[in-house]
Specification:
- Its EC number is 2.4.-.-.
- It comes from Sporosarcina thermotolerans.
- It holds the Pfam family Glyco_transf_4.
- GO terms for molecular function: glycosyltransferase activity.
- Keywords: Glycosyltransferase, Transferase.
- The chain is of the alpha/beta class and 367 residues long.
- The protein folds into two domains: 4-161 and 344-366, 3-Layer(aba) Sandwich (Rossmann fold), CATH 3.40.50; 172-341, Glycogen Phosphorylase B (Rossmann fold, 3-Layer(aba) Sandwich).
- The protein contains 15 helices and twelve strands.
- It has a six-stranded parallel beta sheet, with helices on both faces. It has a six-stranded parallel beta sheet with strand order 9-8-7-10-11-12, with helices on both faces.
- The longest helix has 22 residues, at 49-70.
Length: 367
């Protein structure tokens, strides 16, 4: 295999360490396996029409220059997110006959493709033109096959994988001591962007119920607060409920793993979720997970791996958290560890490299 060129509209930097961290982790994983990987990505999470137009235009031109100058050495391209990223891979196939892989993460189907018919049509062309489509959850596979007419033989269900060297069991007492969390505290943890779609308003409403039963409970929320308009709504909801939370800005994954280990319950109340990688990371650490019965979470937390609750239902969410707090911490341990092991980096890298190799073999046969 010669070279893999990866396109992504999200990629972390020191300034924005969690912006598309899952893509960076996969890139580094592939490089560790000896692959020559080039990443061309957007690293600036800035929003706004002008900012978006500028960064996407620069990214598009950079990507085209890379394909123009290096298409002979490149084996295939791999786009993260169908639209708009997949447009680059589609162009690469038409102009330079470069085969491509697309990883669908969820939002590109649930939200982006639903914006208008033009985007949906472009998404369909990208998916149908791909040599392989990777989806991060079973429900997404169904959407891709039935909604976009993609041959199911080219659709592979595969998560981005969990780094079990970072997200691994750690004694709760040790984690709490390092983070200065009292042993007696009932600690709830949320990790994700502070946006409505992640169900954070539902979590605030549910936490008010939790505090009535557990007065010493604390809710820690780790995530970006870039959406100022929503944060004003969030602050008002806190005030209306007379609820206080502890908000932490994004932090390195090793620190997040420590916070997960210190928590009694990890909560992910999303309104939609392609897979729910952060829930898998919590399971790998060994912390019970309460999540909404949506998207990939419906499969990930099934069969006793976690506690599923109704989406957009604070009462159901509160009941799920109470259930998790009242259970023995060992009840779900073996199922959680088994699930995490099936998504380990070693397993994921072997499956991904096999997909690449099959595409390369097919290309050689045609040439």
């Amino acid at each position: 295999m010669q070279k893999i060129m990866i396109f992504s509209n999200m990629y972390p930097t020191q300034k924005h360490p969690t912006y598309g961290i899952f893509v960076k982790n996969q890139v580094e994983l592939l490089r560790s396996k000896g692959l020559d990987v080039e990443i061309i990505a957007i690293t600036d999470p800035a929003k706004g029409k002008i900012a978006n137009l500028k960064k996407y235009l620069i990214w598009f031109m950079r990507s085209m220059m890379h394909m123009l100058g290096d298409n002979r050495r490149t084996t295939l391209t791999h786009a993260h997110y169908a639209f708009p990223t997949g447009v680059l891979s589609l162009i690469g196939k038409k102009l330079f006959r470069l085969p491509y892989v697309v990883t669908v993460h969820g939002g590109d189907i649930d939200k982006m493709a639903a914006k208008n018919e033009k985007i949906r049509s472009a998404t369909k062309k990208i998916l149908q033109g791909a040599d392989a489509v990777i989806v991060v959850g079973e429900r997404l596979k169904k959407d891709i096959v039935e909604g976009f007419g993609v041959d199911q033989g080219r659709v592979h269900v595969m998560s981005m994988g969990v780094d079990t060297e970072v997200f691994k069991p750690m004694p709760k007492s040790e984690a709490r001591q390092e983070l200065d969390i009292p042993e007696s505290e009932k600690t709830l943890l949320f990790v994700g962007n502070m946006i409505e779609a992640k169900g954070v308003l539902d979590l605030v409403d549910a936490f008010k119920v939790i505090q009535e039963k557990y007065p010493d409970a604390k809710l820690h929320m780790i995530g970006s607060d870039k959406d100022e308009a929503f944060m004003r709504i969030f602050a008002k909801r806190l005030l209306d409920n007379d609820v206080r939370i502890i908000h932490h800005l994004p932090m390195p994954q090793k620190e997040i793993a420590k916070w997960i280990a210190a928590a009694d319950v990890f909560v992910l109340p999303s309104h939609h979720e392609g897979f729910g990688l952060v829930a898998l990371e919590a399971m790998s650490v060994g912390t019970p997970v309460v999540g909404t019965d949506v998207g990939g979470l419906s499969y990930l937390l099934a069969e006793g791996a976690g506690i599923l609750v109704e989406p957009k239902n604070p009462q159901s969410l509160a009941e799920g958290i109470v259930q998790a707090l009242s259970e023995s911490g060992e009840n779900r341990s073996s199922v959680m560890q088994s699930t995490a092991a099936s998504h380990s980096y070693d397993v994921i890298s072997k499956r991904l490299m096999k997909i690449y190799e099959e595409i390369e073999k097919t290309r050689k046969k045609k040439s």
